[in-house]
Every structure is written in structure tokens, then in C-alpha cells.
Amino acid sequence: MRHIPRFFITQKPDSLDDVLLPDWHNLHVSTVLRMRVGDDVVVFSQEIGEWAARLVHVRRDKVVAKCYKQIAQPVVEDRVGVAFGVVKNSNINIIVEKCTELGVTDFYPIITDYTNNKVINTEKLQKIAIFAAEQCGRISVPVCHDVQTLISLLEQDFTFFTALERKKCDACLNFPRECCFIVGPEGGFSEREVIALKEKTTVLTLSHNVLRTETAAIACLSAFNFIRTNNT
Fold first, then answer.
1. How crowded is residue 62: how many other Cβ atoms within 10 Å of its Cβ?
2. How far apart are CA 140 and CA 119, in angstroms?
């Protein structure tokens, strides 16, 4: 059976008879995939769920689909964030792609004492999250927030868990439905930051080995999914 492409829609349509695909997909649909009017696609968003649709307009500057059958209802997800010390762009891309597949709802890039790279392209990261959601079958797409400091992050209303290397961890057998995992940059957290994190977060030890930032983020989400799935 031919693979039917999935597309996230940012538009909140008044009618599902006229669903506009985001403009960054236009060239891909019309030229790369060589799709034509009448071809089937799947469209989805947090608001409408997932729908089977048929293309009714295909041009390089505009692609429109008409929904005809609902495949899945909108879902209520656990709200789980990943805050990561900003590292080089290729590693951030891995964090966003893989953690999207694992169900993250919010990405928080943070500036720490040992952060080297302080500039990121949030718009590009958002598109990576969208493409990952399209490919893995998610109905929702996580939000990539603007970069902020670790201190400002800790002021937000979240239950925080921090992955600290080779530190004594607090006992933790469960995770709440809303929480945020914090992983450090290359070089880890400074002693000043470790003190603040121990005061305001629950400390987790993921491995006896030193993990890269992207590995720690994936490990946190894997633990969250395992424990939430088996305790629900």
C-alpha cells in the first residue's frame, strides 16, 4: 500500500472543506512528491485531530485539501517539557527530533554558566518538530520556546527533575502528568547552579557514565514514558 503523506496544519479552519497546507510544504507537495488534485493525504492538528483528506488545489504557491473522514479525535496529552543547555545546532536538532517522537510538549533552550552557543533559530527548530510529528504519527506538535536563563526557567509553574551526573539522586518512583526535565550543556552545570537545582528540583541520575546533552534528554523522556505507561 502506498504511503499517504501526513501534514500538520497551522490554520484553524472554519470549514474542513478548505484546509490550507502551510506554505513550506507547497514545493515539496507539487514538485518533489509530484502530487496532483485528487491524491489522498492526511492532515492533523491539536484542534481538529487527524483527518483523511483529498487535494483539491495543487500549485507551487498554494496547496488546499478537503477533509472527508476523521481518523482520530484530538487527544489530551501529559504536559512534559525538556529544558536543555544550549549546545551546537546539530545536537539541538537531534534533541528536538527524537524528543518529539517521544512525546515532549515543550522545548526550553536555556543559557547556563557553561553554555558556549547562545544563539538558536527557534523557527527552524519548530519546523523540525513539525516534520518529526508528521513522520511519527503524532497528532500534536510540541512548542519550541525562546531561549531563556536557567533562573527564569525555575520560576515557572512546573515540577522539575534535573539530570545531574554522578550526584546522589532523590528517591523517585513516579512522575506527575505535568513536569519538566532539565539537562545541562557540555561541561554540565556549575556548582552555583547545582545548589539552585538541588533546592528547586528533584535530582535524577540517569547513568554511571557521563551522557551527552542529547542522550540525557532522550533518556529522561524514555524513563517518563516507561513509568507513566506502566503506572497508568
1. 12
2. 26
Question: What residues are paired with 70 via a beta bridge?
Answer: 51
Which domains are delineated in the chain? 6-72 (2.40.240.20), 79-231 (3.40.1280.10)
Residue 113 burial class via C-beta count within 10 angstroms: exposed 0-12, middle 13-18, buried 19 and up: middle
Residues in the chain: 232
Distance CA 83, CA 36 (A): 41
CB 161 within 8 A of CB 201: yes
What does the pLDDT look like over 115-147, one tens digit per residue? 877 788 999 999 999 999 999 999 999 999 999
CA distance readout (Å), 206 to 169, 186, 200, 216, 225: 9, 16, 19, 7, 14
